[in-house]
Amino acid sequence: MRASLLQVDVNEGESVESRRRRVAAAVRDQAAADLVVLPELWTTGAFAYEEFGSEAEPLEGPTSEAMAKAASDAGVWLHAGSIPERAPDGTLYNTSLVFSPSGDLAAAYRKIHRFGFDQGEAVLMGAGDTLVTVRLPETVLGLATCYDLRFPELFRGLVDAGAETLVVPAGWPERRRSHWTLLARARAVENQAFVLACATAGSHAGIAQAGHSAVVDPWGEVLAEAGPGEEVLTVDFDPATVAGTRERFPALKDRVLGLDRPRR
Ligand SMILES: NC(=O)CCC(=O)C(=O)O
Predict the structure, then answer these.
(1) Closest atom, ligand 1, to C-alpha of 173
(2) Can 198 be counted among the known catalytic residues?
(3) Which uninterrupted H or E stretch holds 127?
(4) Which of 49, 65, 135, 260 has the most CB within a 10 Å radius?
(5) What is the pTM of this model?
């Protein structure tokens, strides 16, 4: 299976419309891939809080339309990263979209853990409450977004739902890059799954982005890692490695669930 991660440069010098056209063209160029992955909130930038409301779109908005067409033109599965979604009741969500090679919306995942503590995304956006997996011919994707990477129980839930390839679009700051790299490997090792971690490059809202998108195998080996700038990271991997790893080293079967809490 071939995956291409598009590490998009997101900066205020380029309009959302221009970036949408540029990214759609880049997706069309990936016709040799089976799966193309984009980062989190690449239209606005994950830290451009003041843009979330003005650039929010419904699930059938301009980004979704452009990405559906790009996926069908290229004939690829497309994890189109996330958009600021405005739901019919007005609530904003950080929503990831997955399109099939015929351009149909196969899945939408609303980010469960919002970043910012008592500001930014955490107060501007609603929280998703549903785990999402997507069955491709070669593997089952489990969806998570950026800050979700810090919450291992979410990933265990995805694995329990059948996920073998964990896809994590992000807008991760350069100053915490070591956490990004470490957590992507940790989620791969503990879940014996592939991790496709696709981040933004560049700088927006005064926050330098980490880049360094990566593909990690179920043994925790980094198969490929991008540099800091805009880049297409293409990797061939064998999804059957997941079942092989889980069979040879059956740690997931040794889980002990429902432990009692310490007595006080
Ligand atoms: N967009 C995000 O979720 C940022 C997450 C982050 O900066 C961190 O977890 O650190």
Answers:
(1) 7
(2) no
(3) none
(4) 49
(5) 0.98
